Amino acid sequence: DLLIYPARLTPKINAALLSETDGIVRSIRAPLGKQVHRGDAVLSIVNTDPVYQYAPMTLTAPVSGIVSHVDVTEGSHVTKGQKLVT
């Protein structure tokens, strides 16, 4: 016999990755469902300020786990403090 029950999984740690600057999402290196370790590159953001030519900023995973939610796509404009990935 097979019994099926509805369930909800809740993580012990739920960490959100916030944008540290205004810019455009250049690449998403850890897509939805990917396992990441603390310090792994998750995505990179290119600064759009025409006066300063900064190198793309790489955002890293604050904790080890699974990428459960991605709020942006490549080419999305983001602002400082915006939630990008959970």
What does this structure look like?
The structure is a single chain. With 86 residues, the protein is mostly beta strands. Helix content is 0%, strand content 31%. It has no helices and eight strands. It has strands spanning 17-18, 23-28, 35-36, 41-46, 57-60, 65-66, 77-78, 83-85. It has a four-stranded antiparallel sheet with strand order 5-4-2-7, with no helix packed on it.
User: What is the element string, with H for helices and E for strands?
Assistant: EEEEEEEE
Describe the main β-sheet briefly: 4 strands, antiparallel
Count the helices. How many? 0
Shape: elongated
- Which value, in Å, is the CA radius of gyration? 16 Å
Strand numbers in spatial order across the main sheet: 5-4-2-7
Number of strands: 8
* Estimated structural class: mainly beta
Give the termini separation. Answer: 37 Å
* Overall pLDDT: 91
> What is the strand content?
25-35%
Point out poorly predicted stretches: none
